[in-house]
From TrEMBL:
Residues 313-322 have a biased composition (Acidic residues). Coiled coil: none annotated. GO terms for molecular function: methyltransferase activity. Residues 1-54, 302-336 are annotated as: Disordered. GO terms for biological process: methylation. InterPro entries: Methyltransf_16, SAM-dependent_MTases_sf. Keywords: Methyltransferase, S-adenosyl-L-methionine, Transferase. It holds the Pfam family Methyltransf_16. PANTHER family: HEPATOCELLULAR CARCINOMA-ASSOCIATED ANTIGEN, PROTEIN-LYSINE METHYLTRANSFERASE METTL21C. Residues 1-10 have a biased composition (Basic and acidic residues). This is Protein-lysine methyltransferase METTL21C. Transmembrane segments: none annotated.
C-alpha cells in the first residue's frame, strides 16, 4: 500500500515517520459515529486532487443528512440544519477552507488567535483549528527526523515524540454566530476537533454591531486572524457587519473575507469594505472572491470618512432624481397594464397569477386601477391543475430585494430576509394564497378569526387579511421584525381588521401562553412548515392545540424528504382530513379535529 505524505516547506516525511500516525487515524475512522462514511468510500482531499489550484467545488458525500469533507488531512463530518441559512454550507466557506489548506505557509495559523464571524455550520473554524495542529506537527516530525539521522534512534521514539507534539500545539479558534444557530455549530465543532487539538475551539454568541465594546472589549479580545465566509447575505445588517469587522480588525490583525457576489448590495458592501481597510485580492474565480485586509491608521480613516460622506451626499441626490424618473415610467407602464388587463378579460385561474410591474407603496393610483380591473374580471373557483406552470411559480418582479405579488385585488410587496428559512418565500405559501384567492366561496374567511402558524414573510396572513379575516400571524421571535414590516406595509388602511403578529414556539407551554379557553380560531393556516425535522412532534401538538371543535385547519406542503411523508401520515391519523388540491409534490389539506 502506498503511504500518503504530508508536505512542509517542500520536504516530505519518511514512511517510518507517519506509520503510527496513519494507524491512529485509521482507528479513529473505524469508530465512525452515527453511520459516518466507511474508510473505503474516502475521496481525495482537494489538495491532493487539485494541487494548490482554487476550486470551491469539492468531492463530498451525504450520509444521514451529513456531509463529509477532507481538509487538513482529516475527515470532517458536518451536519447541516434546515432551520436557517446559517445551517447550510455555502460556496465561500468551501473556498476559504481550500485556500487555507493549500496555502499553509502564507497563512500560518499555528498558535494564533482566530475569530470566525458568522460561523454557521462551523466548517471554517474546524479547518482552522486542525490546520494549526497539522502544520506544526509535520514540522516537529521533520526536525526530529533530521536530528536522528545516523544516531540510531528507533521509529517508536520518533512516533512518540510526534504524539506529544499533536497534543501541545494548535490555533486558538472562537466560532461566533447568532444564538439560534449555536447548538448545531457547537455539535459540529466538538465532533470534529475533540481529541485532535490542544486548544478546544470555543463557540460564542455574537450579534453584529450590538454593544460590541461591552461584550467584546478591544482591550481584552484581540485576534491574529478574523475569518468571514459568505456573511454578506442579510442585507438589513450590512452596516452592522462592517462595524463588527472594524471592531475586531485592530493593528496586528489580518481579516480574511470570502464572498460570492449575488446582489447589487454585495458590490456596494465590497466597495465600502475596500474603503474601510487596506485590502488585497487573494483569489478570484468568477463571482467568488477572497480578500485579505488590515486596518487603516486613524488619520487615514478621518480623510477617508470625509471623502466618503461627500460621495454619499452626491449619490443621494442622484438617487432622488432616478426615483422621480422611475415613478413617471411606472405610471406609464401601469396605464399599459390596465388596458392590457381589460382586453384580456377573465381570470386565467390559479396557475397564471396576474403579473404586476408596479410597487404599491410607491404608486397608489396604480393600485386603484388594478383593483378595478380585477373586479371587472372576477375570480372563479379553481383547483391546482396538473398541466402548465405550478401555482407556486407566480409572475413576480424582484426590485431591490423585494418581490411583488398580486392577490385579492392588491399588489403585495414582500421583503425577504435570507438570515432564516422562515423569512424566505416558500412554494406552499404561494399555493395556499392562490387557493384562498380563487376559492373564496369554498373557504370564506370574511369576518373569521384566523391563526397562521410559521407565518415567515407574512404573505399568507396578508392575503387572508385582504380577503376580510381577522388574522394573527405567529412565528419564532427572531423573524418577527421582518414579518411585522411586511404585514404592516401591505395591510395598513386596506383591511377592516388590523392583523396581529405574535411569537409562538411550537409545543412550548401552549396552555399557558395560548389557553384554549381564550384563544379560539375559525381557521388555522400553515404553509410549508414541515422543514425543521427535529420539531415535527411539537408542530403536530401545536396543530392539535389550536384545532378545536369548530376550527378548520388548512395545511399546504411540498414534499421534499421521507420525514414529510411520515408527518403527513401522522397528520391524517390525528385529524379528519380531505385533500383540497394536489399538483405533483404539492398538496393542500383541510382538516378538523376528531371527537
Amino acid at each position: 500500500m502506498d503511504i500518503p505524505t504530508f508536505e512542509d516547506k517542500g520536504n516530505v516525511i519518511g514512511k517510518e515517520g507517519v506509520e503510527e500516525e496513519l494507524e491512529k487515524k485509521k482507528e479513529r475512522e473505524d469508530e465512525n459515529e452515527d453511520g459516518e462514511v466507511r474508510e473505503e468510500e474516502k475521496v481525495e482531499s482537494p489538495g491532493q486532487k487539485q494541487g494548490t489550484g482554487f476550486s470551491p467545488h469539492i468531492g463530498f458525500f451525504n450520509s444521514l443528512q451529513r456531509e463529509v469533507y477532507y481538509y487538513a488531512d482529516e475527515k470532517i463530518v458536518i451536519e447541516e440544519g434546515l432551520d436557517s441559512f446559517a445551517g447550510m454550507i455555502w460556496p465561500a466557506a468551501l473556498a476559504v477552507c481550500h485556500h487555507l489548506d493549500s496555502h499553509r505557509q502564507e497563512i500560518n495559523l499555528v498558535d494564533k488567535a482566530v475569530l470566525e464571524l458568522g460561523a454557521g455550520t462551523g466548517l471554517v473554524s474546524v479547518v482552522a483549528a486542525l490546520l494549526g495542529k497539522r502544520l506544526l506537527a509535520s514540522s516537529c516530525v521533520l526536525q526530529v527526523e533530521e536530528l536522528t539521522v545516523g544516531v540510531g534512534v528507533e521509529v517508536d521514539s520518533l512516533c512518540s515524540f510526534e504524539s506529544v507534539s499533536l497534543n501541545h500545539i494548535g490555533a486558538w479558534v472562537t466560532a461566533t454566530d447568532l444564538p439560534v444557530v449555536l447548538n448545531n455549530l457547537t455539535a459540529n465543532v466538538s465532533r470534529n476537533t475533540r481529541g485532535r487539538c490542544r486548544h478546544t475551539p470555543q463557540v460564542a454568541a455574537l450579534v453584529w454591531g450590538h454593544d460590541l465594546e461591552t461584550t467584546y472589549p478591544t482591550s481584552v479580545y484581540r485576534y491574529d486572524y478574523v475569518l468571514a465566509a459568505d456573511v454578506v447575505y442579510h442585507h438589513d445588517f450590512l452596516n452592522e457587519l462592517l462595524d463588527t469587522m472594524k471592531h475586531f480588525c485592530r493593528p496586528g490583525t489580518t481579516l480574511i473575507w470570502a464572498n460570492k457576489v449575488r446582489f447589487e448590495t454585495d458590490l456596494k458592501f465590497m466597495e465600502d469594505f475596500q474603503k474601510t481597510f487596506h485590502t488585497s485580492l487573494l483569489v478570484e474565480d468568477g463571482e467568488l472572491k477572497i480578500f485579505m485586509a488590515t486596518c487603516k491608521d486613524e488619520e487615514e480613516d478621518v480623510v477617508e470618512s470625509e471623502l466618503w460622506r461627500e460621495e454619499e451626499v452626491k449619490e443621494e441626490d442622484e438617487d432622488e432624481e432616478e426615483t422621480k424618473q422611475h415613478t413617471e415610467e411606472e405610471l406609464d407602464s401601469a396605464e399599459e397594464l390596465r388596458i392590457s388587463e381589460a382586453q384580456r378579460g377573465g381570470d386565467e385561474g390559479l396557475n397564471e397569477p396576474d403579473e404586476i410591474t408596479t410597487e404599491c407603496d410607491e404608486c397608489k393610483e396604480d393600485e386603484q386601477e388594478v383593483a378595478e380591473v380585477t373586479e371587472q374580471a372576477g375570480c372563479q373557483p379553481t383547483v391546482l391543475q396538473p398541466s402548465g406552470d405550478p401555482a407556486w411559480v407566480p409572475s413576480t418582479r424582484n426590485s431591490f430585494g423585494k418581490d411583488i405579488y398580486h392577490y385579492a385585488g392588491h399588489d403585495i410587496v414582500i421583503q425577504e430576509s435570507i438570515d432564516y428559512f422562515g423569512a424566505v418565500m416558500w412554494p406552499g405559501a404561494l399555493a395556499l394564497c392562490s387557493f384562498l384567492d380563487n376559492n373564496r366561496q369554498m373557504v370564506d374567511v370574511r369576518g373569521k378569526e384566523v391563526l397562521e402558524l410559521g407565518a415567515g414573510t407574512g404573505l399568507v396572513t396578508i392575503v387572508a387579511s385582504l380577503l376580510g379575516a381577522s388574522v394573527t400571524a405567529t412565528d419564532l421571535p427572531e423573524v418577527l421584525s421582518n414579518l411585522k414590516a411586511n404585514v404592516m406595509r401591505n395591510t395598513r388602511g386596506r383591511c377592516r381588521h388590523t392583523p396581529q403578529v405574535a411569537a409562538l414556539i411550537w409545543g412550548h407551554d401552549l396552555e399557558t401562553t395560548y389557553p384554549t379557553s381564550v384563544y379560539r380560531y375559525d381557521y388555522v393556516l400553515a404553509a410549508d412548515v414541515v422543514y425543521h425535522h427535529d420539531f415535527l412532534n411539537e408542530l403536530l401538538d401545536t396543530m392539535k392545540h389550536f384545532c378545536r371543535p369548530g376550527t378548520t385547519l388548512i395545511w399546504a406542503n411540498k414534499v421534499r424528504f421521507e420525514g414529510d411523508l411520515k408527518f403527513m401520515e401522522d397528520f391524517q391519523k390525528t385529524f379528519h382530513t380531505s385533500l383540497l388540491a394536489e399538483d405533483g409534490d404539492m398538496r393542500i389539506f383541510m382538516a378538523t379535529g376528531r371527537e
